[in-house]
């Protein structure tokens, strides 16, 4: 199939143009031939590398794209796509290089093209000519010498790029729109894009297995300086693990139920211990498994669309994915409160709580990506400065749990049993917070509440690796139990009130919980992909200051505030956080 459609010319015109066109046509044919060879070579290497690294073949839809080639409306491989583009934008980007010279008027055909087709058939006209077929000629004949040289130069550059991409494919899996995880390299920025919007990007085993080898490859590659994780669009960054799938596997006694958690925890631990800077863009619903992918990274960006929660106790489960580590290290008793109640935090609250490191408006994310992709061998400090520059002004955005709510949380959730916590809440002054909190706790699985409290208390003195290992032991017991299956089916399938067993807190003692869940061994152990470990986050300086940091400064109120504003270089949210902590503890002391 010709790359450019050449319309029939009148005989005199042919005779006049043959001499001038022969050399140009041969040059164009040579370039196009090399482009096609490079494209086929690149595709073959990418498919081979992907199959070798992951051991997983493309699904049927992806395979059909490779065998049959893309439809005429699909972007040619030589045009780099943008994950945020809609279909119309992608088609416009395909035509952009030709339309810059105002030489080409693309006309999309309805035929299915083979995998060797690089461009749709096009009709090329000079601007000063009448638009009739008799006077229409080929691009190579009518373009000026300068224009031909420019187009040839672009094609040569693209040819070299295709060859380089073929070589790089040995280190990175191939990306297609049909995959649930897309992999894109933009300059020295590696992007992982969650692409399962109809399920709010809920994690399944295949998604985890695609991300892990890619991150490992980028960690070893000298071509990637920063890794960025985001989602392709929609409301959900990642709404958690696909718990319905996991419960069905567990019900069938399929070992892949436990295997999912093993692979997931290995991925979460890998992200937490990377040497390559990792940025998670939590621009949407971020719960459960989505928290595991982001909260342990050195940089976590919240936006006005972020909705955070660890709601596992509501489905008869526990806040895992390292929840025992990060929840136990939040200010005061905030982590215990969030883990037990599943309380949702929105927008800037995710930053104030210590879960995100930065708060950036979603409208600036594309500009942020462009800036990050242009950085040359950036340090962690350099990346932090860039994120600070893009951060939104929070001067008039307080923490929704500041003041009396924070004081109540610390007073009530410092106790060592769920019964004592509930009793303390009931003694608090009646308000919206006490009513909401009691309602939340009363609907949760009693077993989940007691396991979660013990889990977070133990996690405070454990390393990250130890926390993941403890959680993997606990998860295996929940997979074999009643409440997890009951909670998932009641919440997601029957939409009914779950029938917890036992149904009352008084029916199960703390000693029984410790014996059955924490002292009794589980059959499977968890081994990580590297031996790195820590007891406090190594990049905590990029977060807001903690309560402990603030209270250790023995100065006047104004001096304390000035100290931290200067120390964190005017970072958005620092002033509000410091004032909240000082006000709260002035009441105590």
TrEMBL record:
It catalyses: 3-hydroxy-2-methylpropanoyl-CoA + H2O = 3-hydroxy-2-methylpropanoate + CoA + H(+). GO terms for cellular component: mitochondrion. GO terms for molecular function: 3-hydroxyisobutyryl-CoA hydrolase activity. It is found in: Mitochondrion. Residues 190-518 form the Enoyl-CoA hydratase/isomerase domain. The keyword Ribonucleoprotein does not apply. Coiled coil: none annotated. This is 3-hydroxyisobutyryl-CoA hydrolase. The lineage of its organism: Eukaryota, Fungi, Fungi incertae sedis, Mucoromycota, Mucoromycotina.
